[in-house]
Amino acid sequence: MSDGGAPIKVMVVDDQDLVRDGIAMILDGQPDIEVVAQAVDGADAIRKAAAVLDLGVVLMDVRMPVMDGIEATRRLAATVNAPRVLILTTFDLDEYVYDALRAGASGFLLKRSSRDELINAVRVIAAGDALLAPPVTRRLIDRFADNSLDPSVAARLDVLTAREREVLILVAKGNSNAEIAAGLHLTEHTVKTHVSRMLAKTGLRDRVQAVILAYDAGLVTAGQR
């Protein structure tokens, strides 16, 4: 259940009827998840999302007619009380995935994922976490990161303490909270607190956006560990 005890409201966006209906059927079978809408493309998703109160998670396909998932994600992220977007992709190194993350998505899920992985993904995203395993983060960033320094982006980091900046760099390198805690000799709770403060100070929603910020600011470069 969500914090208020109500089911997580989900919209499934895919231009393939069988894929869309199959995902909806699996999710609707969970007591804490309710599929409240389905959409056949990005434009359809934008229209339907506006009509749903407290929409929690949008499962968004990337390649669709009329409006693709990247543009739809960008527009949804700009709305008030924006739902969290989970990108559905066929390949874990799909060239569009990184663009979608930049557009505001909170993670991605492979279409070949298992039933349990699908259900868990919705719950993780709804809880405010990002769905990117560290190895996936590393591969995506290594392939798609823009390594040029951006002073305007770097200026956003001035509000961070030295420790928060250090944690940000480790997050950007794909480390989990447990790995960061071990490396810095801190408790996982302390690391979680640092991550939460870092996100709040920089106005970011999750770890995915933090990774992108760190690379845009030049704090980390592709291939660096």
Automatic annotation (TrEMBL):
Stretches assigned to the Response regulatory domain: 9-126
InterPro entries in UniProt: CheY-like_superfamily, NreC/VraR/RcsB-like_REC, Sig_transdc_resp-reg_C-effctor, Sig_transdc_resp-reg_receiver, Tscrpt_reg_LuxR_C, WalR-like
Modified sites of kind 4-aspartylphosphate: 61
Highest taxon of source: Bacteria
Keyword set, alphabetical order: DNA-binding, Phosphoprotein, Transcription, Transcription regulation
Matching Pfam families: GerE, Response_reg
Positions of the HTH luxR-type domain: 153-218
Protein name: Response regulator transcription factor
Source organism (scientific name): Kribbella koreensis
